[in-house]
Amino acid sequence: MLGLKVRGMEIDMEKGKEFQDIFNVPPKKRYKYFVEKAADNGEVWMLNHKRLGCQAFEDEKNIYLRFWPTKDFAECFKYGGEVTQAVEIQEFCDILKMYYEESEQEAKKIMFHIFPNEHDAYTIDSYTLYCDIMDALNKRV
Rounded distance, CA 121 to CA 129, Å? Predict the structure, then answer.
C-alpha cells in the first residue's frame, strides 16, 4: 500500500489504512467513529489560529465549530497560522453543556461540524452531541 495524500499532506503507510477506511465514508459513519474515539481517547481535536483563536464558520443562522477525533485528521486541515489543539473530553462536554444552555437565548445557534473532510461534515447541535458522548462514556464505566 502506498502512502495516502489528503489535502496535499502525505499520510504515512501505517496511518494510511485508517485514513482510507474512515476518511471518505458518509458523514454519519464518521460521526459515530468520532464519538467512539472521543470516549476511548478522552479527547477531541480542533484547530486554533495562533492569533485569532478557534476556527469557526458562520452563516445567517448559525456559528459552526469544527472538531476531529484525532490529531492526525485535524492536521490535514491546518492553514497558515493554525495549530492543532486537544480538548479533554470532560472540558469538551462542559463546553457543549454551556452552549446548549445558552443557545436558547442567542440569535445564532452554535452548531458543530464533526469530522469534516474535503467534501462534507456531520452537522449537529450541542445537546445531541453532548448526549451521544455521555452515552458512549457511560458504556465504558
Answer: 14
